[in-house]
Here is the input.
Amino acid sequence: MLELLKRLMNVPSVSGREDKIREAIVREVEPYADEISCDPVGNLIVRKKGTGKKIMFCAHMDEIGFFATYIDDEGLIKVNAIGGISALAAAYTEVVSENGVRGVIIPECGKEMPKVENMYIDIGAKTKKQAQRRVKVGDFFVCAPSIRRLSGTRYVGRPFDDRVGCAIMIEALKKVKETENDLYFVFSTQEEVGARGSKPASYSVAPDIGIAIDVTGTGDKPGSAKMAVKLGGGCTVKIKDSGVICSPELVKQMREIAEENKVKYQNEVLIYGGTDASSIQVAGKGARVSAISVPTAFIHTGVEMVDMFDVNEAVKLTALLAEKL
Amino acid sequence: MKELLRELSLAFGPSGCEDGVKDIIKSYIEKNMPACGEVSCDTSGGLFLTLKKEGAPRLMICAHMDEVGFMVTHIEENGLLRFGCVGGIDPIVLTSKRVVSESGHRGSIIAKPVHILSKDERDKRPKIENMMIDIGADSREEAEKVTFVGEYFTFDSDYVEYGEGYVKCKALDDRLGCAIMCKLIKDIATGEVSSDYELHFAFTCREEVGYSGAFAATERIKPDYGIVIESKAVADVHGVSDQKKVCVLGDGAIVSFADLGTIYDRDFTRHIMDLCEKNNIKYQVHRIISGGNDSRNIQISASGCRVALLSAASRYIHSPADVVHYDDLDAIYEAIKAVIRRGN
Here is the structure.
């Protein structure tokens, strides 16, 4: 699991530029899938055929990042945000462009609170011309990937959001044994800019049940929003977030299956933030949806923190739902 | 195209009330394209023309017919009209502007005059709640003879050409897109332009209030590709740094990689840029993430499609004095012409 996660986290892929991570995932799932397809919006749809219920699991491949808007006379690159960038978290970190150009992102605000529109990327170019040879207006950047173990089963780095969901789906796909269910594992695009990719994917798949696999916040760190989810307390079963009210019937089934099989889970109500579940619920003729989440502290920073215990519980629950729902 | 653009821009068509614009487009198509394609309308209010080509990829070309405007929300005892905006309008452009109603009655937007404003009020940005439309009625009774709560108003504007190739009017957003599409249709009818795609021209409704017309159109057409023609707000005026200008009038068609509504298909967008290079068509890259348009819904409706955006730079967008440059419209037209000939 950890090696898989490292491989996936190391492929930068900002929203709308998911081709490289898609290729990496295709390599991982190829031996286990009955059908693999890619739609016009870039979603990767992996099917394990069955004759029963259509269940769609969905984790997003994209991550937040930056968009180069202007290159100034000094060769510094001005940017806009793609997705929910925290300027505070991004300031003074290493970044890398969609073409592999490395740089650092710096706020020009002195001691004030940084804002994305006042930040620039320095790629070490001496002149505008030098910079323009390596970066064009319209190029995308992400903060550099990393993953490190702190102690025990706790890891920090980025982007766990949502490569951890992609890794969970891949591991679950490997684990699933005989089932009648018609299983779709959708690796979606453009979630970070408003759950866009999963909508057409869900229209095409037309599932009976949709389950997003994503990260969620935790309430156990100073300054975190009040929330009854803890790192290390198991994966979560989502009840509600700011984009979706989950199907009570499905939530009940998920809890029962978790309990019967001794998977440790927590009930999740996320006040800020949403997932692909919101668009799966309303795409096409609609579907019953919920989500399995990995409790993650410091989401959208360079030190997103997860507990591998929770990740492994999420894999178990995903595979069980695939077989038993 | 200029005469048609004038006629379209002066037509009355705030979001949800696009029939006047639709009628002009419909009669233009029927006059210039007898029996070559199928014109249809749907319940979402859009107007569509399909040019069938069996087996060819389906390309939807889209512009919206609606413009920003106003709606009467309350009529005061003294005959002044309270109103709300239809679509996004900066209140700062509103005071003292001429407006005209659906039924053709004229008025002006008024606010408390400057000589009786307190210093505090003068320093603040104006608010729509403090503005009213004066239609010259002295009482509610008199006002109700010519208008009603729920009636639309738009800017009352003139079509003015000035300088070298500039034009000013209301509603150039997005009548310029409609005009470019009409010209394409006409030139296809005469055989001057040919297409290797099955073309679906979609003139949509209600873009300014959330792209719902484009959603309905795309769910029905289910295209493989989408090109949206739009106008984009720029700030290429005196006193703005090069970085903040965004784009420049007269520098060609704007291609976008991303805005707040859409991350455009990279390969399709780059393909259009390559075609522009190859055919000496002027283009510029959009240098900010802001705004959104029908593309948002076109990209993710039904099973999704590959979408690209071509825009004309517009100064003072969503005002009675929207300004664009004719050369940019020609560049957009040429770029689309190059795209639909796949042999290019």
Notes: The longest strand of chain B covers residues 225-233. Chain B is about 30% helix and 25% strand. Chain B touches chain A at residues 224, 242-243, 257-258, 263-266, 285-290, 296, 299-306 (CB under 8 Å). Residues 70 and 257 of chain B are 32 Å apart (CA to CA).
